[in-house]
């Protein structure tokens, strides 16, 4: 494990701690080794602002030894001072001397050795710390704690507080108070190093490699918490570390055997399956998963009634390993709604053996399993570009630059993106993946198999906590009809989860015609239906979010293989529309792609085996049988119900015909003069809410001083086309009020983009009538912070 030898010093105000100073890092086998270590130099240019005078406390500061051979303190002290934690003035003050602020009889043991990691509290501590290890005491006897000594020790060796910029997310230099309450998701998401189990990256398997190796010395992305900075890439002696480093160009690069973009169910399934095959065959492959969310699961949103078929194949012991899958479906209902009534319909969903889950929680668990197998997962990466070789073959991805201001200038924490190169690259970005769409167009992947265009829907979801008397764990309800008109395809879902939680959501197909339709307001309106409102009254909304989903099905699957890799999961579009499920098919596609990739890397086969495997799998069988369900609704609700019933109950997917989709979603929007504006009631604040209130519940956060990631190909089109012809539909289809038309100085309405509100749902990229809006990735770690979605 790579650590930093430190020794205490006194701050001399006369000394100019300039960036020309150098520090050294030393490598040792364990924190308690007694031998001296050789050290390799690190430039303080890699640690912006670290050694400024304002960042030191005159009594308890530390510096990193610059000698070529550093002698640490005795073995007993080594655990305390081997980390650079105490370099920060605030942390050194508040952790080094807290015993002087609190009566020793109340809080002495954890700080018997100044600067030492805390120990288990005894019975004299306040009861609220009884389940953890206190991190500090203040004058108010406010003990914050880790859940285990291991978690505390790893924090102390991580350098988390090494850079002062991180203090904006660590008040007074402290980590957040540990809590497993679902109502604390905002705190958890602000500090993704510490999930519900106080784990780094959702597990602790990469801490030694990343956090103790100088990862945070770059001092640039601590706002986002997760980012590979240049310091890590220049530290060559990582114990058991990454495969290789290169700095031949102006960007750093890391080489892997397989790079997976997206830590969702497809990407993690692929990574897990690859490592499983490595174990089975006695082969070592390096696998990296990059995720734009601040932590694994932060951008994951789904219904979700989970079919465990793929998980049974991938991790058959998931029940014994305590996967967050514990609420089996207990009842299944399907209703047609009118304004005041609900009519029961025959239920086409066979949910026997399925479970009501939070997909974001399942993905976190899968991330832990992946890391246990040796997969390296890096949340906070935003894959912004594809890397190609001279023959136009994909050789990896580039993460976007960090620290770029709105005007394009470099802020003081600027850092170039990192090249992550892979012999195989798997894209698992989810619905409407930005890189996946570029490759589909570049390599003409739809044309290669005569696939139709993809069609989409927007799903909006809330998680409520309701009265226990109303809660029925495992109860599943789907509806069609009101409040949508009979020409618009869509419906709702309401699933009873565990712990008095209810998942309620609304889905609207994005091929709707009326430009005045507002999916968010339709959802709020739905919750006032007389059979829905009583369930929610008296409850509390815990979280809100939105995401688009693929509905094209079998007809819209592109050729998923490109030179150098493949597209998996919802990026390719494997959602089974009549089942309203896509997680199991996404996982299976990732597993099949992993098997093909393993063959390419070790057996000399080619990636086209993935396509062959897909066509011979149960994914293909499922989607073929379901292929006519979605296009059956092209002409409205009633014809759609009739045709889908014929397909499901009579033909059972064996129809000799394959129906086609209608116009692409953006072309389906009518001009405003063909429709009358729709009127929506004001939210009551009880079951319906305005957008800002809901947005707050999504835990969405972006760095404000960065270029807008929502780009207009032609800035004139909103004023010349969208507003006069379509009445500004972007101001309504966006569920986060990103797009607003506001008057300028002359009273003319101009489009204003609130990019910091973005939920990453991708609706704008899909629905804009002229395809003028391009969704690109913002700085890594930005966006929503889902924990129970």
From TrEMBL:
Residues 685-787 form the ETF-QO/FixX C-terminal domain. Keywords: Electron transport, FAD, Flavoprotein, Iron, Iron-sulfur, Membrane, Metal-binding, Mitochondrion, Mitochondrion inner membrane, Oxidoreductase, Transit peptide, Transport, Ubiquinone. Residues 94-126 are annotated as: Disordered. Its main location: mitochondrion. It is found in: Mitochondrion inner membrane. Residues 101-111 have a biased composition (Polar residues). One of its GO terms (cellular component) is mitochondrial inner membrane. Residues 456-549 form the ETF-QO/FixC ubiquinone-binding domain. Its cofactor is [4Fe-4S] cluster; FAD. Its EC number is 1.5.5.1. This is Electron transfer flavoprotein-ubiquinone oxidoreductase, mitochondrial.
């Amino acid at each position: 494990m790579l650590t930093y030898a430190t020794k205490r010093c006194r701050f001399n105000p006369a000394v100019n701690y300039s960036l020309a100073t150098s520090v050294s890092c030393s490598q040792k086998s364990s924190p308690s080794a007694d031998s001296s270590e050789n050290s390799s130099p690190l430039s303080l240019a890699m640690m912006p602002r670290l050694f400024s005078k304002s960042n030191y406390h005159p009594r308890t500061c530390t510096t990193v030894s610059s000698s070529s051979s550093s002698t640490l303190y005795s073995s007993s002290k080594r655990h305390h001072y081997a980390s650079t934690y105490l370099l920060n003035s605030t942390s050194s003050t508040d952790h080094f001397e807290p015993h002087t602020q609190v009566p020793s009889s109340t809080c002495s043991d954890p700080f018997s050795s100044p600067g030492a990691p805390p120990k288990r509290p005894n019975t004299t501590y306040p009861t609220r710390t009884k389940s953890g290890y206190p991190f500090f005491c203040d004058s108010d006897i406010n003990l914050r704690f880790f859940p285990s000594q291991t978690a505390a020790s790893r924090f102390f060796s991580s350098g988390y507080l090494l850079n002062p910029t991180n203090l904006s997310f660590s008040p007074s230099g402290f980590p957040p108070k540990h809590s497993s309450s679902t109502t604390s998701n905002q705190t958890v998401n602000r500090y993704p190093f510490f999930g519900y189990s106080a784990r780094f990256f959702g597990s602790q398997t990469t801490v030694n490699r990343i956090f103790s190796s100088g990862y945070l010395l770059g001092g640039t992305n601590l706002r986002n918490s997760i980012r590979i900075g240049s310091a890590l890439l220049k530290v060559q002696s990582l114990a058991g570390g990454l495969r290789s480093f290169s700095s031949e160009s102006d960007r750093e690069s890391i080489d892997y055997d397989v790079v997976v973009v997206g830590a969702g169910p497809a990407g993690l399934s692929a990574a897990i399956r690859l490592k499983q095959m490595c174990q089975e065959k006695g082969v070592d492959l390096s696998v990296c998963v990059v995720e734009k969310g601040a932590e694994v699961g932060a951008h994951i949103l789904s219904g979700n009634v989970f079919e465990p078929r793929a998980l049974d194949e991938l991790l058959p012991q998931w029940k014994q390993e305590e996967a967050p899958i514990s609420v089996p479906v207990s009842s299944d209902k399907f209703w047609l709604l009118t304004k005041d009534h609900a009519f029961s319909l025959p239920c086409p969903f066979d949910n026997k053996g399925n479970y009501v889950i939070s997909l974001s929680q399942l993905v976190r668990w899968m991330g832990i399993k992946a890391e246990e197998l040796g997969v390296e997962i890096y949340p906070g990466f935003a894959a912004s570009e594809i890397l190609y070789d001279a023959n136009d073959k994909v050789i990896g991805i580039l993460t976007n630059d960090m620290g770029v201001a709105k005007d394009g200038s470099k802020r003081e924490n600027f850092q170039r993106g990192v090249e992550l190169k892979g012999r195989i690259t798997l894209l698992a970005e989810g619905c409407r993946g930005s890189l996946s769409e570029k490759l589909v167009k570049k390599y003409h992947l739809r044309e290669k198999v005569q696939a139709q265009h993809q069609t989409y829907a927007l799903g909006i979801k809330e998680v409520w906590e309701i009265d226990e008397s109303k809660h029925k764990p495992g109860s599943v309800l789907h509806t069609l009809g009101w409040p949508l008109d009979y020409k618009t395809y869509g419906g709702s879902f309401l699933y009873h989860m565990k712990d008095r939680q209810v998942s309620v959501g609304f889905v609207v197909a994005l091929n709707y015609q009326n430009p005045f339709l507002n999916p968010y307001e339709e959802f709020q309106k739905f919750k006032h239906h007389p059979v829905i409102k009583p369930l929610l009254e008296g409850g509390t909304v815990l979280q809100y979010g939105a995401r688009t989903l693929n509905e094209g099905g079998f007809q819209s699957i592109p050729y998923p293989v490109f030179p150098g890799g493949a597209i998996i999961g919802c990026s390719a579009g494997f959602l089974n529309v009549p089942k309203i499920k896509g997680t199991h098919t996404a996982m299976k596609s990732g597993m099949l792609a992993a098997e093909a990739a393993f063959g390419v890397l070790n057996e000399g086969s080619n990636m086209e085996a993935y396509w062959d495997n897909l066509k011979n799998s149960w994914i293909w069988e499922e989607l073929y049988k379901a292929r006519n369900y979605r296009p059956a609704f092209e002409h409205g609700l009633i014809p759609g119900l009739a045709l889908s019933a014929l397909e499901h109950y009579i033909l059972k997917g064996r129809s000799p015909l394959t129906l086609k989709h209608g116009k692409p979603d953006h072309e389906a929007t009518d001009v405003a003069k063909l429709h009358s504006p729709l009127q929506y009631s004001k939210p009551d604040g009880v079951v319906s809410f305005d957008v800002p209130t809901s947005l707050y519940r999504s835990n969405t956060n972006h760095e404000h001083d960065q270029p807008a990631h929502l780009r207009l190909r032609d800035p004139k089109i909103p004023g010349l086309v969208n507003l006069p012809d379509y009445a500004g539909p972007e101001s309504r289809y966006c569920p986060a009020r990103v797009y607003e038309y506001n008057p300028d100085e002359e009273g003319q309405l101009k489009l204003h983009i609130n990019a910091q509100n973005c939920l990453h749902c991708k609706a704008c990229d899909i629905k804009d009538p002229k395809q003028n809006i391009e969704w690109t990735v913002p700085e890594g770690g930005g966006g929503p912070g889902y924990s129970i979605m």
